[in-house]
Write a structure and sequence with these properties.
It contains 16 helices and 17 strands. Helix 6 packs across helix 7 (about 160-165), helix 10 crosses helix 11 and helix 12 runs parallel beside helix 13 (about 330-340). The chain has helices spanning about 35-40, 40-50, 65-70, 75-85, 95-105, 130-140, 160-165, 175-185, 205-210, 225-230, 245-255, 300-310, 330-340, 350-360, 375-380, 385-390, and strands at about 15-20, 25, 30, 50-55, 90, 110-115, 145, 170, 195, 220, 260, 265-270, 280-285, 290-295, 315, 345-350, 370. By secondary structure, the chain is α/β, with parallel strands linked by helices. The protein is elongated, with a radius of gyration of 23 Å. Adenosine-5'-diphosphate binds next to strand 14 and helix 14.
Length: about 400
């Protein structure tokens, strides 16, 4: 078990919390503040414990001086202040005398947000390369370090791994929850344990398949990924998305785990990737050379639902169709609806899958929807994330 924020006496201490405030911002306006909301529990706890709270986060990528204009954390400081009902002290500097003076003046319960850590990436990539000078400087600003930025934990940067290797450190509530929900579930799932995989490409998910095929009882495959498997079985898949370099891998998985792998039996096809294209549903052996498979059909939904009804745990990564076009969102919606209606431990990992089910209104119907896209995928691959590995055990 990793040390958590609760294992430290925070009173009067300068506590650096690495948050994930990497929110979408357009023309200075935050479009989705979910990540800020998710970080409140840890920040509020530190305030209640009379810490002097220092927050770090990245936002976007900084490759030029111009990138700094649209990637300031200032709008985050404002929104965070509204949510915490508290003034947030914002430091425009990521280092230097002005920042140090602001920190010296902090009282217990105060919250200071430092400007985007990735401002240190231009010109020398200091944050992203985990520069030891930068890490020790940031560490020198505080006494305890809490990592709560799950979405960045698969990266080895100065603001997570760097500081954690210097200061006494623990994880915040958000990472603790991700570790519990994803990590513990993969270790000891309530069985039958079903994994649903979709999304565009098999090649993005090879590590996930390799790891989970040994743990899960069933792996249901939909989305674009299904067509590489179907082609590997020798079926005509028309112009559907196929990962030709992954066909050997799919054949290997089908040969060695044939009973576990559940593929679609019918497909919603279009002739173009366009909202106005004509749509036909075809059995899996009926596709023509011109067909593009863009969603799973009704019979596949029924088949997948049968497996879900028999399961006690489900982990889902990857939409089951090209859900961005409403005509091809049915599979994803119906499966989300099914999971919502049965009593099952249900976990979603993957950025697009999380966005899809949240937009469809199922946010509160899953046991856990991960806040980290790439990070949750690496956990599903069975990897230990560097930003979490560096935190000491209890
Ligand atoms: P996640 O971010 O949840 O890990 P991915 O990034 O792997 O998911 O996949 C999401 C993408 O997969 C979506 O943009 C969706 O349109 C696409 N997709 C799903 N099914 C198909 C399909 N049949 N053909 C093409 N693209 C698909
Ligand atoms: Mg994605």
């Amino acid at each position: 078990m990793k040390k958590t924020i609760k294992d430290f006496d925070l009173k009067n201490k300068k506590v650096i919390i690495r948050c994930d405030f990497n929110v979408p911002i357009k023309e200075g306006v935050i479009i989705d503040d979910n990540r800020i909301i998710e970080s409140l529990e840890t920040i509020n706890y530190a305030i209640e414990q009379d810490a002097k709270v220092i927050l770090l986060s990245h936002l976007g990528r900084i490759k030029s001086e111009d990138d700094k204009i649209n990637n300031s954390l200032e709008p985050v400081a404002q929104r965070l202040g509204e949510l915490l009902k508290k003034e947030i002290i914002f430091s425009r500097q990521t280092r230097g005398k002005k920042l140090e003076t602001l920190i010296d003046k902090l009282n217990v319960g105060d919250v200071l947000l430092i400007e985007n850590t990735r401002f240190e990436d231009y010109p020398n990539k200091l944050e992203s390369s985990n520069d030891s000078g930068l890490a020790s400087y940031w560490a020198s600003l505080g006494e305890i370090f809490i990592n709560d930025a799950f979405g960045t934990s698969h990266r080895k940067h100065a603001s997570n791994v760097g500081i954690a290797s210097i200061l006494p450190s623990g994880v915040g509530f958000l990472i603790e929850k991700e570790l519990h929900e994803i990590g513990e579930t993969i270790k000891k799932p309530d069985r039958p344990f079903t994994v649903i995989l979709g999304g565009a490409k098999v090649s993005d998910k090879i590590g996930v398949i390799e790891n989970l095929v040994n743990i899960a009882d069933y792996i249901i495959i939909g989305g674009g990924m299904a067509f590489t498997f179907l082609k590997a079985e020798g079926l005509e898949v028309g112009k559907s998305i196929v990962d030709n370099e992954s066909i050997d891998f799919c054949q290997y998985i089908l040969k060695n785990h044939s009973k576990k792998i559940i593929l679609p039996i019918d497909i919603v096809c279009g002739l173009e990737i366009d909202p106005n294209t004509m749509v036909t549903t075809k059995k899996i052996n009926e596709l023509d050379v011109d067909d593009i498979g863009l969603d799973i059909g009704n019979e596949s939904i029924h088949l997948f639902n049968d497996y879900l009804e028999r399961s006690k745990t489900v982990i889902w990564n990857g939409p089951l169709g090209l859900f961005e076009i409403e005509k091809f969102a049915m599979g994803t919606r119906e499966i989300a609806n099914k999971i919502a209606s049965i009593n099952i431990t249900s976990i979603i990992g993957g950025g697009d899958t999380a966005a899809a089910v949240i937009n469809m209104g199922y946010k509160n119907h899953f046991t856990h929807i991960s806040t980290g896209g790439g990070a949750s995928l690496e956990m599903l691959e069975g990897k230990e994330l560097p930003g979490i590995k560096i935190i000491n055990n209890k």
